[in-house]
Amino acid sequence: MLWSDLGIVLSTRKHGENSVILSLLTREHGRHNGLVRGGAGKRLSPILQPGNLLRVEWKGRLDEHLGSFQVEIEESFGAATLTNRDKLSQLNVLCAMCEACLVERQSVEGIFGAALILLTMMDETRLWPEIYQEWELGLLNELGYGLDLSSCAATGQTGDLIYISPKTGRAVSREAGEPYKNKLFPLPYHLLVDEVKPSKKDLLAVFEITQYFIFKYVLEPVGKKMPPARQRFIDRLK
Length: 238
What we know:
Strand content: 15-25%
Largest sheet: 5 strands, antiparallel
Radius of gyration: 20 Å
Shape: elongated
């Protein structure tokens, strides 16, 4: 079995004396692991830094085997984050969430493309949380658990939507939600109107919502927890 692809480095772990198991988010083959011989050495270790974009060739006897990677650097995004805490926090949350939330070898080309955009915008530290928020919403959508904010879950009306139901992920109108408002998420207005710029409070509200649904539907069923890197990112945003 043999294929080539582009991949974003998510993590590495030592294997033997001089090799590593490399975890990548690839464009066409999803999150994929493979052995890199010599990956812990001086020549390859700088290439295998989290966030770097690689051109890789994977080879294995059978498709389900771990296999091995041959790697070439395509673009070094990781190095630019090492001297900036905000950028490093951004990179860490993106890589950690990909690692935790994506099933290995499941094609997620849309998530790969959006992650690559986030990497190219690491310098935009003020704008980055807003774009990353869209990435988490897109992650839920790509995995089949996207929010439905088109109409009220209870009445079907499209106006005066101010809540999100934690049971369904659907919008709820003011009138229908009034008796249950203490159990509902507030719906940040910028999620309904693209032209509205979110405040820090709005972004934190969205991150609370996405955390709830990512944990409920993606992580908890397979016994995983929310990556600590995400909480560190949220704490810096506060």
